[in-house]
């Protein structure tokens, strides 16, 4: 099938590459000229396991192309995906300007039937807005062309995006049109062989499904962080509690890790957006507001532990930071806990020596050159001359470090661990002051 994808970000690029891999002809359109030129040269703008060879192979075979020419994109595909960003507006609601801009572009250039598919995470009612926007623009052109708008939210996880798109758990499609249903079945047939994973529903339910999924996951994290704070104050160990509750199949072990707060481009913005949606309809979402508040508080935890250890005197201290991305296997630092920590440290007059396996360039792009941030080539180098180590991200190669090296390299044997990677008792035996999350010793 001929497919066009607007927006070559984490979602658009991965989805486009996977659709091309199974044989669809995909044109990717982005307004970012630099990104498009780089992609044509095989330079992939994001780190995502397996993505580089996948994009290169499909580009070389001609199944995927990259362009800034929106007209070409609109003319190409019967299926028009909108996968642009929906960042938070000033009040936290989702900013739809990019989505509506693409809708306008499609309306401007289309000359035959199109299925316009919202892949971006958009508030309930957005498909109606896109429908109205396109209809108005077509009327202004004096064009009478048939089109449908469908919702097809994306559930990929950064860090496992290629695998998730190749083998989705479910494909949610919101439409009330039989014609769209048939076309979407054909589009996704290569991903739907083992059993039927496609869940058709009405458009509004599909739009809400995406928010409900992310808010549920954010709630699980904030719930565990709340429990971890209680555990600390009550002298319990949250890691024991986690295993104790995870063994109940109604709860399960997935996604109940306590830590230094959730980040990324989705959970914070989607929880916020649903809170604003609720407020907009006169419903106060007590639960989601609390999920957000708990997360804000949790992100301050690392700094609070450092302040506790150093009696709130961090001026001229050097802190080693391991992990900058909001989670492992990605270079994405949007809303990462590391950023809250580093910015607090700078405010307190401390210096940061950081290492991340993939997010160093991103960190450089965000913060530029500054005297109080040194990006180090290895995790060991980040420790040189530092007063303490803070772990923000649970990258695999942080899990069994050389503790003797850490002990002899740091000025003080202090580790603040935002991901509970080590056993407190063993850390104590090794002579460290070890501050974890919800494990007794922390504040
Ligand atoms: P992103 O910021 O990585 O990419 C968005 C891209 O859209 C950018 O390259 C930007 O240049 C481009 N763009 C903006 N306006 C455009 C226009 N008018 N025409 C063409 N391109 C345009 O965003 P992302 O992380 O891929 O997220 C996209 C959407 O998918 C968001 O709504 C997000 O909430 C949702 N989503 C993201 C994830 C994730 O893990 N990142 C997962 C599921 C859903």
UniProtKB/TrEMBL annotation:
Its EC number is 1.1.1.22. Pfam families: UDPG_MGDP_dh, UDPG_MGDP_dh_C, UDPG_MGDP_dh_N. It is an enzyme of class 1 (oxidoreductase). Substrate binds at residues 155-158, 210, 255-259, 263, 327. Residues 320-424 form the UDP-glucose/GDP-mannose dehydrogenase C-terminal domain. It catalyses: UDP-alpha-D-glucose + 2 NAD(+) + H2O = UDP-alpha-D-glucuronate + 2 NADH + 3 H(+). The active site is at 266 (nucleophile). Pathway: Nucleotide-sugar biosynthesis; UDP-alpha-D-glucuronate biosynthesis; UDP-alpha-D-glucuronate from UDP-alpha-D-glucose: step 1/1. Belongs to the UDP-glucose/GDP-mannose dehydrogenase family. This is UDP-glucose 6-dehydrogenase.
């Amino acid at each position: 099938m001929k497919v066009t994808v607007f927006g070559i970000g984490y979602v658009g690029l991965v989805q486009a590459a996977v659709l091309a891999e199974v044989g669809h002809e995909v044109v990717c359109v982005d307004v970012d000229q630099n990104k498009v030129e780089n992609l044509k040269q095989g330079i992939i703008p994001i780190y995502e396991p397996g993505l580089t060879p996948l994009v290169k192979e499909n580009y070389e075979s001609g199944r995927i192309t990259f362009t800034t020419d929106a007209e070409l994109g609109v003319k190409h595909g019967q299926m028009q995906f909108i996968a642009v960003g929906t960042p938070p507006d000033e009040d936290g609601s989702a900013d739809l300007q990019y989505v509506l801009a693409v809708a306008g572009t499609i309306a401007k250039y289309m000359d035959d039937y199109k299925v316009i598919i919202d892949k971006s995470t958009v508030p309930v009612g957005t498909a109606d807005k896109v429908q109205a926007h396109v209809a108005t623009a077509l009327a202004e052109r004096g064009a009478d062309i048939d089109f449908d708008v469908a919702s097809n939210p994306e559930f990929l996880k950064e860090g496992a995006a290629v695998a998730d798109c190749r083998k989705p758990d479910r494909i949610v499609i919101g439409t009330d049109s039989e014609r769209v249903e048939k076309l979407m079945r054909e589009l996704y047939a290569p991903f739907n062989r083992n059993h039927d994973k496609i869940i058709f529903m009405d458009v509004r339910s599909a739009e809400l499904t995406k928010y409900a999924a992310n808010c549920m996951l954010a709630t699980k994290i904030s719930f565990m962080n709340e429990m971890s704070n209680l555990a600390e104050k009550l002298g319990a160990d949250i890691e024991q509690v986690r295993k104790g509750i995870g063994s109940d199949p109604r709860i399960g072990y997935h996604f109940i890790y306590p830590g230094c707060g959730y980040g990324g481009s989705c959970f914070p913005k989607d929880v916020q957006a649903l809170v604003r949606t609720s407020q907009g309809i006169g419903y106060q979402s007590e639960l989601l507001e609390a999920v957000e508040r708990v997360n804000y508080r949790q992100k301050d935890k690392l700094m609070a532990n450092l302040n506790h250890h150093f009696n709130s005197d961090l001026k001229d201290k050097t802190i080693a930071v391991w992990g900058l991305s909001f989670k492992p296997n990605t270079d994405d630092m949007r809303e990462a806990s590391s950023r809250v920590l580093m910015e607090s440290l700078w405010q307190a007059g401390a210096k940061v020596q950081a290492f991340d396996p993939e997010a160093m360039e991103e960190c450089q792009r965000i913060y530029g050159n500054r005297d109080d941030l040194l990006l180090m080539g290895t995790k060991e180098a980040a420790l040189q001359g530092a007063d303490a180590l803070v772990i923000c991200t649970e990258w695999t190669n942080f899990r069994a470090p050389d503790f003797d090296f850490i002990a002899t390299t740091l000025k003080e044997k202090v580790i603040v661990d935002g991901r509970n990677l080590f056993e407190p008792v063993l850390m104590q035996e090794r002579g460290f002051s070890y501050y974890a999350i919800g494990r007794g010793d922390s504040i």
